[in-house]
Amino acid sequence: MDIRGEVPQDYAAIQEVIRSAFATAEYSDGNEAELVARLRRSDSYIPALSLVAEEAEQIIGYIMFTKANVGEAIVLALAPLAVLPEYQQQGVGRALVKSGHEIALMLGYTHSVVLGSNQYYPQFGYVPAHTLGIEAPFVVPKENFMAMALRESKPLQGTMTYDAAFGIE
Ligand SMILES: CC(C)(COP(=O)(O)OP(=O)(O)OC[C@H]1O[C@@H](n2cnc3c(N)ncnc32)[C@H](O)[C@@H]1OP(=O)(O)O)[C@@H](O)C(=O)NCCC(=O)NCCS
Questions:
Q1: Do the domain assignments include residue 124?
Q2: Domain limits at 32?
Q3: For site-directed labelling of 6, which of 42, 44, 57, 149 has its Cα 20 to 30 A away?
């Protein structure tokens, strides 16, 4: 399996991966593929952190990290992460998250923030975001709004501001 940055020729296959992964997901608003399209058009888009997992020339997984703010600081928002159902539970999601973190570190980012399963993300080092000084801009169980310090850095303190593409009021 290869992991690489997305290119426009991948967009249709990525949309299909997202659609089929979230069709059976526990939490989905059904708009994840459109969110990705909006994020690509936004200032928060980072092509080098929009990654596909590819096997035998088929795209089987996708992860996107985009720029967000906590006060004056720039952090990453991890969303979405999707693996084709027939390839789930085989380490594809883990490989995408870990590759993303390595690239994020090289690019100088200090924190990644995710709204998701507290059964899944802690294996990578994600902890409840408030323990790192990051508050959610919406009402959400504290254990599902998580963040990870990619390296030592100045403490953060503030509410996360997502790109307008997320449609968070
Ligand atoms: C969630 C998802 C991305 C995980 O990807 P994956 O490739 O299936 O997961 P991995 O094989 O890398 O899992 C790594 C570990 O996490 C565990 N795990 C996988 N999915 C999990 C879940 N939903 N909850 C808890 N643990 C999970 C695996 O059992 C594995 O543990 P192990 O190494 O002890 O066996 C994938 O199942 C998916 O696309 N789901 C639908 C979309 C979705 O919900 N995305 C997340 C939005 S926040």
A1: yes
A2: 2-163
A3: 149
| Domains: count for the chain | 1
97 CB within 6 A, ligand 1: no
pTM equals: 0.97
Q: Looking at ligand 1, which residue's alpha carbon is closest to its atom 22?
A: 120
Ligand 1 centroid – CA 71 distance (Å): 31
Q: What is the CATH number of the domain that holds 63?
A: 3.40.630.30
DSSP state letter for 155: P
Q: Which DSSP string do the residues of 15-41 spell out, in sequence order?
A: HHHHHHHHHT-SS--S-HHHHHHHHHT
CB atoms within 10 A of CB 104: 23
- Asked if residue 9 has its Cβ within 6 Å of ligand 1, the reply is no
Q: What is the mean pLDDT of each run of 10 residues along the chain (169 residues)?
A: 98 98 90 97 98 97 98 96 97 98 98 97 98 97 98 94 93
